[in-house]
Amino acid sequence: MAVNIAALNQVYNHYLTNYAPKSSTPMDSHKKSELRGVYNSIVKINKDSPLYLLNHDNATKAYAINLKENARELSNTIMSLGDRDDDNLLGKKVAFSSNPGLVAATFIGKDQAVTDAPAMTLEVKSLASPQVNMGDFLPSNERTRLTPDTYSLDVTIHDTSYEFQFNVNEEDTNKDLQDRLSRLISGANIGLTAETIEDGEGNSLLKLSSVSTGLDGEQGSIFKVSDNNTSKHMGTVEYLGIGEITRNASNAVFSVNGAERTANANHFTIDKTYEIELKGISENEADVAQIGIKNDSESLKENIRTLVGGYNNFLAAAHEYTQSHPRSRQLLREMGRISSSYAERLESLGLNLTADGTLAINEETLDSASKDLNFEDRLSSVKDFTGSVLKKAGDVSLNPMNYVERTVVAYKNPAGPNYASPYVTSEYSGFLFNSYC
Length: 437
Fold this sequence. Notes:
- The chain is α+β, with helices and mostly antiparallel strands.
- The chain has eleven helices and 19 strands.
- It has helices at 5-18, 32-48, 58-79, 174-187, 236-240, 296-319, 328-347, 363-370, 375-378, 380-398, 427-433, and strands at residues 51-54, 95-97, 103-107, 120-126, 132-134, 138-139, 149-157, 160-168, 192-198, 203-210, 223-226, 252-256, 259-263, 267-270, 274-278, 289-293, 351-353, 359-361, 406-410.
- Helix 3 (58-79) packs antiparallel against helix 6.
- The longest helix has 24 residues, at 296-319.
- The radius of gyration is 27 Å and the shape is globular.
């Protein structure tokens, strides 16, 4: 059977850009034993699952995929706070920055190497910037002087070329053409953004900016725009004035403990220990950021705040579907039962269950509890709660179709033997390839 690779790529890219809320993280990589466990769980679910008739409308497809991705995001949030092991759950060390408006820091090293994690001082001299091509200002409401026809232009980014074809109609104004190209280029997701800018005096221009920043080695530019060798009519690049670089990309320049360094992005790692994000420029030599590791108590409180934030975000996402997909209420009830069973113990640590099922942090109670000599023993309730939430998130990620409206067609024979159907928990994957296979 022939495989349409272009169609599969289109499906995959559509999924990543429209449904996946977050990019992949280190928590998305798994050991063979973990993948084997997922497989065994799927087999177990499928053996006893009835045969269902599903609603295949677009809203249901988006709901199922988003539900799975939100569950994955919650799992990743919890896993980023420590290991699955009860003793290490919520045990992740947390970095601090004395000047978060200048530099943000995240600890990414191994916890056992915390004693070797160096404290450091960062001064930011310049931020990494993207390449910008600013077009010429043209009268916005004036009809374009291009002959009506089909035009095209080529954009080359990191040795990869993309051709954009578009029509110029007789009644099109300059702004119509600029807006059309802005939507076309930005919507292509090729690492380039475009926007129409007006000067308030009846003129507008097309601005192109690279998503990436900085330059590597002898690289002269991030992208080039031309229509000299394009397949359709040429002339739009010169007419709009978008072929010349207005501001070239530049690298970030900063110093670590007085030693100057450069990076082609404002987000990078140092010594496999800290993930750094540069946010501003030092105004003087005294305007620096001290980077280090918070003590155990402060790290623990920060992990609890991150847990509560991830939990509340997951509930908020599920709440959005209660009207259009009633079975999402089942998920909310299940999450509510989990939190209710731990409510009294969580409250003693400053985590209060609200009327809508979310958690609110009483900072004074949490701070007071963290100073208790028996804090580690009291923390076991939070760890138990976290473990239960992690298990539920795993179940939702494994079988999001459990929360989709569906009609039972046939039950499995209770007398058996029953065999696993590989598609029962994977119907959502069929949504991605619907009409392509």
